[in-house]
């Protein structure tokens, strides 16, 4: 489709967090014009964009206002919580929505993407059932068995998610899921608990006029359903890498369009199990800021603009570890950065979020090491030195 297009292009970013910030930097390096949008002022990506707007991205009217005002060539979602039906309308008017308007709609609903992967494409996923009431959740939890994982169908970053050990915990999981569900959705998914050896993100780059390509797998650890550490390359066998690439290709082909996808898998002793995917750079992929010649944000930009990606080079054992807030605050300052940076092959990024609350991701530590363990140790040590005051 859009190969050899002219630069600069006008890019509208819907969501302006840490992932958007790095994307804007990549876009700016090629001289593009970026309008950064989010629900609050001075969001990370707004700090580096050409201009910004604060709107509710769940409001079709608000989206209409900013699109009419700025007339972007591309609309690039950076978060899930967007009125995706409206994106379909923009697409019909000739604006390119990344990866496609339909794909952003599918991937913000766990049930739709799950049905696509499992029912239509025959991909192995965790066993799952849905519930709309507590009574239904009790019934389907018994069918799935314990432990299991309860999640709102509409949520991200582990919000509303719990591991349920037995029947006595179902009611609590129900309330937690319902109160953390996005919008007014009351649909809950319960999944078989997968006792994986490792979970990975396979960054998958779908291009307009060139074959789909992959980054080496990224291993990661999660707490409360949210990412804590990631590392690359993940130590998994070649046949499992090929199996995950095959699934990632199948699912992203079904979604269409162009851009990077973070495709999540659980790897057990014998199986590669598809979990979900982001049609955009992935938080665990921040490790590529240190681990690759082209990071996931540069790859996303090139794929979107139809620019060539001749070679992805992995630069050696690398890791990332998150820097989290522990308290609510609206005056942000850090100590310990100098101490963290004194170590060789360590880097720190502070996102510039204007406020903090418990567990909010405020920055990330990046490191290279002699092996994965060494890189992880260096990244977590550096992250632990940086303190919010
Ligand atoms: N069925 C499962 N079995 C075992 N662990 C699971 C299961 N589902 C989720 N988890 C754990 O919880 C984490 C978050 O789950 P999931 O990716 O579905 O949530 P999310 O809200 O979409 O998070 P994000 O938006 O950050 O990707 C997973 O990475 C995994 O560690
Ligand atoms: N797993 C999705 C993810 O990591 N998304 C990233 O977090 C930001 C929201 O952060 P906030 O909640 O601190 O505002 C999003 O804008 C995106 O950059
Ligand atoms: Mg996930």
From TrEMBL:
Residues engaged in binding N(1)-(5-phospho-beta-D-ribosyl)glycinamide: 18-19, 78, 283, 353, 360-361
Entry keyword set: ATP-binding, Ligase, Magnesium, Metal-binding, Nucleotide-binding, Purine biosynthesis, Transferase
GO molecular function, one term: phosphoribosylglycinamide formyltransferase 2 activity
The enzyme's E.C. designation: 6.3.1.21
Binding site for ATP: 110, 151, 156-161, 191-194, 199
InterPro entries linked to this entry: ATP-grasp, ATP-grasp_carboxylate-amine, ATP_grasp_subdomain_1, PreATP-grasp_dom_sf, PurT, PurT/PurK_preATP-grasp, PurT_C, Rudment_hybrid_motif
Residues where Mg(2+) binds: 264, 276
Highest taxon, organism lineage: Bacteria
Catalysed reactions, semicolon-separated: N(1)-(5-phospho-beta-D-ribosyl)glycinamide + formate + ATP = N(2)-formyl-N(1)-(5-phospho-beta-D-ribosyl)glycinamide + ADP + phosphate + H(+)
Spans through the membrane: none
UniProt cross-references to NCBIfam families, sorted A to Z: PRK09288.1 (NF006766), purT (TIGR01142)
Functional note: Involved in the de novo purine biosynthesis. Catalyzes the transfer of formate to 5-phospho-ribosyl-glycinamide (GAR), producing 5-phospho-ribosyl-N-formylglycinamide (FGAR). Formate is provided by PurU via hydrolysis of 10-formyl-tetrahydrofolate.
Record text on subunit structure and interactions: Homodimer.
Protein name (Swiss-Prot/TrEMBL): Formate-dependent phosphoribosylglycinamide formyltransferase
